[in-house]
Here is the input.
Amino acid sequence: MLDAARFVAGGDDIDPNEVEDAIASLVARSMVLASITEDGTRYRLLETLRQFGEDQLVTDGDVASVRERHTRYFVEFMRRAWSGLWSGDDPPWVRAVGREYENLRVAVYSAIESQDREALAALLKPHIWWAWHALRYEVGGWAEAALSVKPEPDSARSVAVHLRVHGGRPDDAVRLASGLKDQVHHDDPDEECLWAWAHFNANIVTESPDASRWMRRWIDAGRRAGNDARAAAIASIEVAFRIMAADTDEARRIAEESYEHARATGNQTALCWTTFFMGRATSDSDPERALRYFDRSVEIAERHHLPLIGGIAATEAAVVIARTEEPDEAWPRLAGALRSFVDSGDRRQLWTSAHHLAYFLARAGRRDDARRLWRELGSRQAYAAQHHRDELEALLGEPAESQLSDAELVEHICRLLDDWDGAIS
Here is the structure.
């Protein structure tokens, strides 16, 4: 974008208008590529020219000042993004952060090199929400690298724990969580919210009975932070715990309350989550209604670039269809969701969706495949509700200790997907 180029390329002796004129000249000579997006024109250097320009900056001794301006620009961008992602106009911010992903990586590592903890706090904080929803778990590595800066940047450890949990590295998440500060951040409601969220994730990974206590602290911190969209989205996650505890009436109450609050804020990410949990809360009592909620959640997710929620909702929709219609009708949704979690590295979500794959295979008459998959999943952590596990156990017997490594099980799931694709094509 031109505003970024003006800020980064401009300096004490360079007028921002000169930068704009130079870019126009380079575009005219096809040395810079211009592309029209829904949010404006973006510019990209050819790789050979980008490398040449960087070499010139090094030669001229300007590289440090340019990197500093680049980092400063994206620090301010991410500060605005944190507010924007929780506003009633969040879709443009979801897209904007995604477009700047490569720039943000450069800015984070530049800030690590310069030991700029305040810049790192601003750059990483929105990723506990954006990178999670975008299935960009590489950001967990950025956050972990930022811990080399002392004192640690605010939010960096919380972001690292969260994205390591969902990025398929639970042991790393537990190790990182052991270094979380003990004190409550009453002076910074946002930091307190992220801190409690990280503790909650670590307790989920270790299947600690303290997980529900940390969930309550996370929900309370979300409310105290004063953002209605965030509070609604966080509160809705309690629905899953109520369902697993067979407390369906309370699950429906929380789901309905969160859904109405999210609708009132206009925040599409919060609405997508709460719509999904409306489906979860009604899937046993009213499958047709639940399917409408799941499909609506998938629709919001696809429109606003939220693949995490879209994949989860598509999985649940497939299960509802498999229970009420022919299994083949559910296959495209389930297969798409499973492949998205394979690609993202979110193992816990993959194992959860694979529970549904086992049910699907059993319903389709492939009991041997279903039984083997179920037994491999038995000792792995997942978000599957207890009554779903009980149903699978009644269908397929007791789960056994896994004989496959995680990587081997992922390969096995991929083979099952390919085999079924071939069978129905």
